[in-house]
Every structure is written in C-alpha cells, then in structure tokens.
Design brief:
heterodimer; A: 114 residues; mainly beta; Immunoglobulin-like; six-stranded mixed beta sheet; four-stranded antiparallel beta sheet; 12 strands; B: 115 residues; seven-stranded mixed beta sheet; 0% helix
Chain lengths: 114, 115
C-alpha cells in the first residue's frame, strides 16, 4: 500500500528566507511523486512532479524537490520565501500498479512572516 | 476555457435532503475522481472512474453514488445528507501514462454545508 507522511503540519518562515517542507513516502513499486499547493479557498495547483530519472525536479514559482529513493523522501525547497507562498502544501504519491490511485499527505501549512 | 469544472461551487442544504454535484473535464482524460476535503484540509479519495468504469471505490457510505455518463463527466449524488457530509468536494482528472502516472487536474471545488 502507498502512504505519505508530511513531517510538519505547520511551517513558519520569514520573507526572504529558505523554505523546506518535508515529505516521506511509502510505495511498493517505483512511484510518481507530486507537490500540490492550495491557496485559501482555492483549488489545488500542481507545483512539480517526479516521474522520470531526473531526481532534482524544478517547478513553478522557484520551487524544487529532490527525489531520494534511499531515504524515500521528496522534500520541497525554495531559496527565498515570498508572502504569496503562504498556503497549504500537499505531497502526493501515485503508482500505476495501484490503479491510478493518488494518495495525499496530510498537508503542511506554510506561513510567511513579513 | 476551464479544464475541469464543477457545479455548484457552493451548496447549503438541510439534513436529510438529496443533492448532486456535477463535474466535466475537457482535457480528453480517461480517468476522473472525486475527493473529499474535510475541515482539517485532509484530502481523501472517494471514487475513481476510468472510461466510465468504476475502478476505485473507497469506504464511503452508500448514500454517495457516482455516475459517469461518459468519460468527460463524473457526477456525485448524495442521499439523506448528514451533518458530517459538510466538506469541500473536489473533482479531478488524469491521463494514465504507459510507464508513469500523469498528474491530477483539479476543479475549483464544491463547498457543501449541511445544516
């Protein structure tokens, strides 16, 4: 079975400082991994995805994530936080062997302080 | 032109009523989903259809019944609404790849409030 753990339910950073949102996954096969962002009262938007051999994945708005198979991790980073980054972030795992089932982590709320 | 659209966006109703939420995607995807997001923002899959065929049916009360008239539409009907059904319901679609999973495309969500 697949599962996702997001180690921090809430992360608070100052504007201009780095962001690190942690994600660990469990999957029996080679997974696809995603990060989605949800701004207040909005739908979910794809930030980036890992589906190939390139382990460092770049996404929109300066975010990137590194797939580390040995650590079963897919942490999300950004060098410099912006006020507009304040939102809920979800790490997602999927595997075609599970019938296209996308399993969401519990989410991490990112606050950005001025 | 919205890729995945859901209606209505807001729904306020009384306990015991029956309501439906409609979803349409114009991306040509084969697979569609319904997710429920609770008050703690946790997203849980409810159903998934691939080309009109049910492929994922999680532990959901049988008061919830999905219907897929064609692969571009997946509607959700809820009978005898309960207070605990209050949530945001998201429709999504994806296109399975030959080797890897395609990503999910989400609608804007339908906020259901049961009084």
């Amino acid at each position: 079975a697949q599962s996702v753990t997001q180690l921090d339910s809430h992360v608070s950073v100052s504007e201009g400082t780095p962001v690190l949102l942690r994600c660990n996954y469990s999957s029996s096969y080679s997974p696809s991994l995603f990060w989605y962002v949800q701004h207040p009262n909005k739908g979910l938007q794809l930030l980036l995805k890992y589906t190939s051999a390139a382990t460092l994945v770049k996404g929109i708005n300066g975010f990137e994530a590194e797939f580390k198979k040995s650590e079963t991790s897919f942490h999300l980073t950004k060098p410099s936080a912006h006020m507009s980054d304040a939102a809920e972030y979800f790490c997602v795992v999927s595997d075609q062997n599970y019938g296209q089932n996308f399993v969401f982590g519990p989410g991490t709320r990112l606050s950005v302080l001025p | 032109d919205t890729a995945v659209s859901q209606t209505p966006k807001y729904l306020v109703t009384q306990m015991g009523n029956d309501k439906s939420i409609k979803c349409e995607q114009n991306l040509g995807h084969d697979t569609m989903y319904w997710y429920k997001q609770d008050s703690k923002k946790f997203l849980k899959i409810m159903f998934s259809y691939n080309n009109k065929e049910l492929i994922i049916n999680e532990t959901v009360p049988n008061r919830f019944s999905p219907k897929s008239p064609d692969k571009a539409h997946l509607n959700l009907h809820i009978n005898s609404l309960e207070l605990g059904d209050s949530a945001v319901y998201f429709c999504a679609s994806s296109q399975p790849g030959t080797a890897r999973t395609g990503e999910l495309f989400f609608g804007e969500g339908s906020r259901l409030t049961v009084l």
